[in-house]
Amino acid sequence: MATPTSPVRVTREVLLLAQWQACELFSQDIAVLHEELSATTATSDLRERVPGVREPYRALLKPLLTTLRQQRQSLEAALNSGAPVPDPLAPGVLLEPLQACFDSLTACGLTEMARGALRDTLRRVNCFGPYLIQLDIRQESGRHRSVLTAITQMLEIGDYSLWPESKRVKWLQHELSSPRPLIPWEHHLDCDDREVLDTFKVIAATPPAALGAYVISMASTPSDVLAVQLLLKSTGCSEQMPVVPLFETLADLESASSVVNTLLEDPAYLARIDKKLMVMIGYSDSAKDAGMLAAGWAQYQAQEALLKTCAKHRVALTLFHGRGGTIGRGGAPAHQALLSQPPGTLAQGLRVTEQGEMIRTKLGMTSLAVNTLGQYASAILQANLLPPPEPTDGWRALMDQLATQSCDVYRRWIREDEQFVPFFRQATPEQELAALPLGSRPARRTSDGGIESLRAIPWIFAWMQNRLMLPAWLGAGEALKVILHDGGLKMLQEMLEEWPFFRARLSMLEMVFAKSDHTLSAHYDQLLVEPDLAPVGERLRAQLQQDIETLLTILGNTELLAHDLWAQQSIGLRNIYTAPLNLLQAELLRRVRAGKRTDSQQALMVTMAGIAAGMRNTG
């Protein structure tokens, strides 16, 4: 059984709550229509459905209103007292009577009544249906591998985890074509494996229209995708559910097209996906793995390669961008970010994540939501009608050099400097963040390990709090400086002028530099960092200053954001409010770590949320 706080229970409750909310909202809409549609003029088709009544529209809508209210009550009982879950409403239950009313009113010339609240409700029904949302399911590839290992051991055919990739793929393909059951349900499974299978049971019990895609975190091989398809088949789920590999690390991005090509060479796989494929591009973990500049170039090249691979197999590719709000997680103004994508990658539109406080910032009010969707729509249209230029061979060669050098610098700091991790944990609120309901849950993918095990959001969020903003710039400036010393300024400025991808990278870098604060970062070090680790912070701030000067040389400016006075003034204004929060947070951290305060979690969370709001692109 799932524990009260298990992901399985949460998934089930989210799906039921969405259905409950849909019933609540549509009940309100139908109640209004029931009051408004008092007309007695109707077509013969509509009157045949409710014979002998004076007000046919009300007579048709009354049972629908009753159905919605009864469904809402049943869902409340299932959520609150464990009563049996009612069968989901079919979309036609909502749509059909409303459409009948609309058609009748239109045919009778009552167009004003038809095109008022009734048409608005019809649009909502077509957009949201009785399930309100399409919920994506996400699980890490290693969890699926563990389940299949347990199954192969129960069947006494070997250890799936030890098989070479070719054997895994061959076995998975065979089982996908086999009609016999795979999972020996009567055997014992450990809690983690049972949890994965229980999630698939929830999927099986949910109408396909209420589900989005199944996203595989840390996908790296063809077997990662086939494993999920096999588990969907073996647990009675709809095999039409899109299975989306998420390529996150630098190595996985580089091998993404090869993985997809292997899958597409299988005719059975092509038939299962109906020649439509979605692939998710990871921004967070690739940036944590290799630094912002190297990750950005790897993401660009991966998209190009995936597009070519899918075109070769005549498969329509939709890219799912796993962006966050921070620069270190791919965050950028939506219009600029979309126009910096490789040519052709937006032909099928796109999916994109909006996370954290960015949901409220971009979609929290009607005017904001309309503006955000307008930016997406206009950028996609522009990218398809007036695609950005293909990078020249010279640009590619220079980006290869920049990516390699910046990655080397980044990893030298992160992985090779023995003092770096202790400094990070003392100079930022990383340790305290794990105990607060902020960021990724859990903060680490594993309970042990260093930076590699830390989730990307806490990693970036912690550096943003002390205003060093390190993940978004480390390595990039030093690599650019090498190019400048080698006489590459002219080509860098040419790329800045003519290539949207490169212009977006430098624009994001400039924004990060403008939001960093040497003085506040040094204050955190003074209060929180042991003396023998203090030189690490001093070297990082010196590097930050060098990188700012390098960027200004390329831009031909004497100050950051000289071309964008509004952004410059906005950041300056917000600093007035965020700086005191930084000072308060540093003092709270000092007291907590000294054991002098044990009741400061709420205050710490307030400072973190306030600083995040002031920095804005932080999610």
Characterise the protein shown here:
It is built from 27 helices and 6 strands. Helix 14 (334-339) links the parallel strand 5 (316-322) and strand 6. Helix 1 (7-36) runs parallel beside helix 8 (191-204), helix 17 (393-416) crosses helix 21 and helix 24 (518-528) packs antiparallel against helix 25. By secondary structure, it is mainly alpha-helical. It has 3 domains: 7-131, Phosphoenolpyruvate/pyruvate domain (de novo design (two linked rop proteins)), CATH 1.20.1440.90; 201-385, TIM Barrel (Alpha-Beta Barrel); 393-615, no CATH class. Residues 325-330 have low confidence and may be disordered.
Summarize the topology.
Layout: H1 7-36, H2 44-49, H3 56-81, H4 91-107, H5 111-128, E1 135-140, H6 141-154, H7 165-177, H8 191-204, E2 211-217, H9 222-234, E3 243-247, H10 250-264, H11 267-273, E4 276-282, H12 284-290, H13 292-312, E5 316-322, H14 334-339, E6 350-352, H15 357-363, H16 366-385, H17 393-416, H18 420-427, H19 430-433, H20 456-465, H21 476-485, H22 489-498, H23 500-515, H24 518-528, H25 534-555, H26 565-593, H27 601-615
Parallel strand pairs: 1-2, 2-3, 3-4, 4-5, 5-6
